[in-house]
Amino acid sequence: MGEICAQREYEKSDFVLALEATQERVRHPFGARPLEEAFERAQERPLVLKHPKLAQAVLPTAIAGVALELQLQQGDKPIILPVEPLRRLFHQRKLIVGGALRQLVKCGLLSVTNAAYYRGKAREFRFVAAEGRDFERSESEIALAAERGGGPMRIGPTCNSR
């Protein structure tokens, strides 16, 4: 800890307070952008959802892919799926992204681990879907993603955030 404080010119007491404040948060390496990285991995390995309500649903399928990649990275720890950053990644309105998350919970692919919500706090989830039962990795979709070069997936037109 002392070496990190020295390199970043932090006071040790401030660093201890920061650790205390962030103890329950999802952890990632310094400078990593886990949501964007999960988004890119999900594009390279797209899912096909088996639930009848989700089988043709493009946005929930894409968000499920991101959730799976985050959960693989986090192990047993909860993941966060913040609506505003997801909205920007998928070029959708917040209302649509929120509805997609709710649909994934209702269909049993995501479970809410901490339902407490207030402005500025993302809800915590676990990706609980099982490969084979709830989803598959589509070889044809993976091939299409490779042809696209893994470029950004545009689900819809850029919309207002409200």
CATH class: Mainly Alpha
Mean pLDDT: 82
As for the number of domains, it is 1
Spatially, the strands of the biggest sheet line up as 2-4-3
What is the fold-level CATH name, i.e. the topology?
Arc Repressor Mutant, subunit A
* Computed Rg: 18 Å
The number of distinct helices, counting runs of at least 4 residues, comes to 7
Report the biggest beta sheet as strand number plus sense, adding barrel if it closes.
3 strands, antiparallel
Q: What portion of residues is helical?
A: 40-55%
Low-confidence stretches: 151-162
Overall 3D form: elongated
Percent of residues in beta strands: 5-15%
What's the total number of strands? Answer: 5
The oligomeric state of the chains shown is single chain
Helix-and-strand structural type: mainly alpha
In N-to-C order, the SSE pattern is HHHEHEHHEEEH
N-end to C-end Cα span? 42 Å
